[in-house]
Amino acid sequence: MARFRLFDLNDAQRAAVTATDGPLLILAGAGTGKTRVITARVAYLIGQGADPAEIVAVTFTNKAANEMRARLEGMISREQAAKVTMSTFHALCLRILRSGIDRLGYKKNFSIYDEGDQIGLVKKIIAATAAKDEKLDPNLARSAISKAKNAGQPLAPGTLVRAVGERYDLELKRANAVDFDDLLLLAVRLLREQRNLKQRWQQRYRYLLVDEFQDTNRLQLDLIALLASKHRNVAVVGDDDQSIYGWRGADISNVLQFERHFPRPKIVTLEQNYRSTSAILFTANGLIKNNPRRRPKKLWSSIGTGEQIRIISCPNDREEARFISEEIQRNRLRGDVRWEDFAVLFRMNAQSRLLEENLRRLQIPYRIIGGKSFFDRREIKDVLAYMTVLVNPHDDASLLRIINTPARGISASTTEMAVTWSAQHNNSLWQALVSPEFRGQLSARTQASLERFVALIESYTEAARKPQAEPAEPIRRLLREIDYIAELRRQCKTHDEAESREENVHDVLRDLNQYGQRASEGLRGFLDEILLDQEREEEEEDVEDRRGVTLITMHAAKGLEFPHVYIAGVEEGILPHDRSKAEGSLDEERRLFYVGITRAMRTLTITHCYARVRFGSSSPCQPSSFLKELPPDHLQRTNLETLLNTPVSEASAKTGFAQLRAALGM
DNA sequence: AATTGCTAAGTTTTT
DNA sequence: CTTAGCAATT
Predict the structure, then answer these.
(1) SS3 letters across A518-559
(2) In the prediction, which pLDDT does A651 show?
(3) Are A436 and A465 in contact (CB under 8 A)?
(4) Over chain A (666 residues), what is each successive 10-residue block's mean pLDDT?
């Protein structure tokens, strides 16, 4: 039975929780208890007699899904919570596809291509397709292809991108692989084309919940509509004011035109904020009001006015970083705050450099969110590619990665011949390698190398695919046979690097064994999970390395909160970014600033510079036009020099904090 | 096969 | 100023 109390919720939250039937749009402003409402709603549905197995909550990240499940476990029994489907869009689609993709002409052991794999394939196709005078940036082509898929719109006919895109899809299919976008696209296609499958999935989920609805794209909306079309119980939670992923295909009109997609919905707006002071919310409200297309809402809180928002003008970026770092240190040493209570937000990752230097100089612990992933590391990708080839040898991207790693006498020119042969015969690379006809073109020596490689893969295939308690064992033997670790060590410059890379390999194998303990989908399931959940390593590092000031982009900060927030570099050209003006996404930049502001719980400091080093040389800059839009009521505008020349006595500083604490009721 | 040197470009990144 | 990607070199 439900162990939560409806009267712990405010009126709007309660309305959102108890409106069980029909479409529901929950407009959840920043810090209004969104996760609480979703989990309470699930608990409430179950309390009202719903079967947990017919409830699905869809999120964007695994982190959000895990958090939701953890919260739910605090409200209902573990067994019941376990029956509720909580999944990312991609993982849900993967489940749909693994059970029925053969009807679209793919084999069920298909691989998933990540961005790197996509780029590799696109490059190859451009090289083969483009005339000599034609040029096409592979990154641009990749993102155009991706956007077209997500928007459900074809690429412009007659263009090179179109030709590349068409070939790209064919090649993917030939490799028995799908990319991230295909997971959604093909799942939607499958449900549309296969009546019985559609009915099965519609039947299964009587209640749908969708998190971060403002970030959904056309395909995701289609998927939701398909799944919900029988029972029509779809509750979406989102905030159009926090839609900052339009450039990735998110379509804010999914929120703005919700009624068109799901007629006669109930709409609940959550406006009571439990995070920030009134001064912060007043400022945020004043800014976002300038966006023309939005669902009106006004955040408020009963936390108290709090301190004024400071806008500090700095002569240059070095002074800015120095000021922020030194002030964090001063405030920390004054006591009562921890390093992890501070966050510095910025528009671009490059802005973190100066901050890092200063924090290091002052020996302040910090953590940077974002950056290169564990899974981008060479040795990890190698090992995963070996695993992938064992599951699906027709995955050219993975095969190319390992065919001569470590070097085994299959030269680049041999590989190139194999690629050409496979293209001519419309076959996979693997099929070229095993074809006597292709091998016949090669020297005896190369033939022997190739045969050894093919035999190697084949000899481990069966063992690797068989589900077993220690799935890492065959992989470990394979790596030992090719002496991978020795090769890895040889390539490292320092001993430390070798240690850490070797450790990474062992970590992956250990993860695989752990996966084997709790799941039965074997190697393929493990690879799926890794591809669709690349953030868990970051989590692990978080645990050890939790302490410290957070340096983070405003994008990555969405959903987080910090007692003391600095937003740095709020200048025209950075926020809003120069490119956004050309792209006509000024509103989205404003929302980004809004997201930044609403991360702050107690104090907010916004800085901008009059000069900044860009591309090596210092150039002048103007304060962001957004700063003019902030209502002056709770603002305190200062120059850095003035601020530093006005000494704050120990006593008055203490009173300031004491007053704040009193206001916060602490 | 690996290193060196040149060129060009320079947001944001949940899967 | 960096840094990534690529070509040319040893």
Answers:
(1) HCCCHHHHHHHHHHHCCCHHHHHHHHHCCCCEEEEEHHHHCC
(2) 44
(3) no
(4) 72 95 96 95 95 96 93 92 95 94 92 91 85 80 92 88 92 94 96 94 95 96 95 96 94 96 96 97 97 95 96 96 96 90 96 94 91 75 93 93 88 87 91 93 90 94 86 93 87 77 89 89 91 64 66 95 97 93 91 98 97 91 96 95 73 50 51
Q: Are the C-beta atoms of residues A236 and A220 closer than 8 Å to each other?
A: no
Any catalytic annotation for residue A107? no
Are A28 and A101 contacting, i.e. CB atoms less than 8 angstroms apart?
Answer: no
Residue nearest to nucleotide B13 (CA to C1'): A248
Residue-level pLDDT at A376? 73
Q: Point out the catalytic residue in the list A114, A212, A528, A533.
A: A212
Q: Considering the entire predicted model, what is its pTM?
A: 0.90
- Is A114 annotated as catalytic? no
Q: Which two tokens stand for residue A616?
A: 């090596």
The full 3-state SS of A310-321, as one line of letters, equals EEEEECCHHHHH
Query: What are the b/e assignments for A439-465, b being 16+ CB within 10 Å?
Result: beebeeebbebbeebeeebeebeebbb
> Do the Cβ atoms of A370 and A553 come closer than 8 Å?
yes
**Which residues contact residue A164 at a Cβ distance below 8 angstroms, ignoring those fewer than 6 apart?**
A122, A125, A126, A129, A130, A136, A141, A145
**Quick one: pLDDT at residue A72?**
93
- Comparing every residue's Cα with the C1' atom of nucleotide B10, the nearest one is A615
Beta strands A266-270 and A24-28: pairing type?
A: parallel
Q: Encode A142-168 in three state secondary structure.
A: HHHHHHHHHHCCCCCCCCHHHHHHHHH
- Sheet (strand A24-28) strand order: A85-88, A55-59, A207-210, A234-238, A24-28, A266-270
What pLDDT is stored for residue A546 in this prediction?
62
Give the span between the Cα atoms of A280 and A273, in whole angstroms: 11
Q: Residue A228, CB half-sphere, CA atoms under 13 Å: how many?
A: 25
Judge whether A637 and A313 are in contact, CB under 8 Å.
Answer: yes
CB A213 within 8 A of CB A254: yes
Minimum CA–C1' distance nucleotide for A615: C1
Nearest in space to A214 (alpha carbons), one of A234, A236, A239: A239
Task: Look at residues A272, A283, A296 and name the one whose alpha carbon lies nearest to residue A34.
Answer: A272
Q: Which nucleotide is nearest to A351 (CA to C1')?
A: B11
CA–CA separation, A559 and A468 (whole Å): 39
